[in-house]
Specification:
The structure holds two protein chains of two kinds. Chain A is α+β, with helices and mostly antiparallel strands. Chain A has one domain. Helices cover 18% and strands 47% of the residues of chain A. Chain A contains two helices and nine strands. Chain A has a five-stranded mixed sheet. In chain A, strands 4-5-6-7 form a four-stranded antiparallel sheet, with no helix packed on it. Chain A starts with a helix and ends with a strand. By secondary structure, chain B is mainly alpha-helical. Chain B is 57% helix and 9% strand. In chain B, the strands form two sheets. Chain B has a three-stranded mixed sheet with strand order 1-3-4, with no helix packed on it. In chain B, a hairpin with a 6-residue loop joins strand 3 and strand 4. Classes of the chains: A alpha+beta, B mainly alpha. Chains A and B meet through helix 2, strand 5, strand 6, strand 7 and strand 8 of A and helix 5, strand 2, strand 3 and strand 4 of B.
Chain lengths: 162, 268
């Protein structure tokens, strides 16, 4: 009885070791990336809120979590035009194509202790290199980047990494 | 007449309050009920407790009814007003006016406060110089600690690395925007100029900024601005396509070897 038990432990130990090690590193093998594309524009509105005050900004309900950051930009209308969530393995490129032909390519470089290193490349429809950078996210923070599409409108990307 | 008949003792009051709040044990509840039955003052006190509770409830309900307004909208407008006022009128200074200055104690306090501030400033200056010397030997850029590091880096350290041309470093600028275009022109701060940090106020403003991520390097065919609201610890990276400079695509660069080698624009 004891002999068979020892034999079982001996045979199963490599398997247990592999499962344990893979569980330890499983969380650091992929990164959850969320990209939201926001169209910003300067429009005049006559809307008033409940208190009778003029509404200064129009913001889609899907992006109210970054309202505080968007208010720094010189636009008063922000509409979500697309969003995509993906789980991307480390060192794997993932491209997000925006509606107007712009392309965002992301590649998680590393992930350790919740800190994510991310390579971001954003090209416009003409192939212009809008942004090419490598950033380190140390926590759940939304990165906001944008560009002026026309004199009265802009394109904003809100990138979340977990 | 015994005083206990005129006024309830502290223990009796505590017992009644506990009974009212439902925090007593079975035996204590029995004692409280017996006190209420035997003592009219206790009944009066207990009644006053009920009245206070009822008035508080009605007051709370009144607040809830009256507060159904968009508070965020109010806060947002207030922040905008404060920002405009700060640019046109300077920083609001309330602490000094609250200090007593008329009497001897007030003057003593003022002297202590300003003496402390002077020592603090001197210490900060020494610390800044020490940190500045230390960061010069650091090859990596850390935007997480202070934006001032970026600016100094772009001015003092990147220039020799990137090119002798200062235009590259000058492409990094910091700006603060709001709705009004007039305000925008006033608020926009090009801190990263050829003169570097001449203005200590700008330096202090930038030191308050916090970028929630660290940047290894960054490049763009356009002009990159870091838009920062000093009151919020967040930064927006804005690319101006109109002022593109294809011959000088590098905006920030930490490692000299990446500058000299051909740059692959797509992630590897």
């Amino acid at each position: 009885m004891l002999k068979s038990f020892i034999k079982f432990i001996f045979c199963a130990s490599p398997l247990i070791f592999i499962i344990g090690v893979s569980n330890i590193f499983a969380d650091d093998n992929s990164v959850f990336i969320s990209v939201r594309a926001i169209q910003a524009s300067r429009v005049t509105t006559n809307q008033v809120n409940q208190a009778g005050h003029k509404v200064l900004r129009e913001i889609s309900p899907e992006i109210v979590d970054i309202k505080g950051k968007l208010r720094k930009l010189n636009y008063n209308s922000f509409n979500l035009i697309g969003s995509e969530n993906k789980i991307v393995p480390i060192n794997t490129k993932e491209s997000f194509t925006l509606s107007d032909g712009q392309k965002v390519t992301l590649r998680p470089v590393s992930k350790k202790d919740g800190k994510v290193c991310l390579w971001i490349n954003w090209k416009d429809q003409n192939g212009m290199n809008l942004l090419d950078t490598r950033l380190h996210f140390s926590g759940p923070e939304t990165m906001i980047t944008g560009t002026d599409a026309t004199p009265e409108s802009g394109m904003i990307l809100a990138i979340d990494v977990k | 007449m015994n005083e206990s008949k005129i006024k309830l003792s502290d223990k009796e009051e505590e017992l009644l309050i506990g009974h009212f709040d439902g925090e007593l044990s079975l035996f204590q509840n029995f004692l409280a009920k017996r006190l209420l039955q035997s003592n009219p003052l206790a009944r009066e006190y207990f009644g006053s407790l009920k009245e206070v509770a009822a008035s508080l409830r009605s007051f709370k309900a009144d607040i809830n009814v009256n507060n159904k307004v968009d508070l965020w909208d109010r806060i947002e407008r207030r922040i905008d007003q404060e920002e405009r006022a700060e640019f046109f009128l300077g920083t609001r200074d309330t602490a000094r006016s609250e200090l007593p200055t008329s009497n001897w104690f007030g003057q003593f306090v003022n002297k202590s406060v300003f003496g402390g501030m002077t020592v603090g400033l001197a210490t900060a200056a020494v610390a800044f110089v020490a940190l500045d010397n230390r960061t010069e030997s650091t090859p990596n850029i850390s935007l997480g600690n202070s934006v001032a590091v970026i600016n100094e880096a772009s001015q003092a350290r990147f220039s020799p690395f990137v090119n002798s041309d200062h235009n590259v470093a000058n492409q990094v600028e910091y700006a603060s925007f709001s709705d009004s275009s007039a305000y925008q022109s006033l608020a926009q701060k090009k801190v990263s100029s050829n003169n570097g940090f001449r203005n200590q106020k700008d330096l202090r403003t930038l030191k308050r900024m916090e970028i929630p991520f660290k940047v290894d390097w960054m490049r763009s065919d356009g002009q990159v601005s870091f838009i920062q609201d000093p009151r919020r610890g967040s930064t927006v990276i804005w690319v101006n396509k109109g002022s593109q400079n294809p011959s000088r695509p590098i905006v920030l660069e930490a490692e000299p070897k990446l500058v000299t080698s051909p740059l692959d624009s797509s992630p590897e």
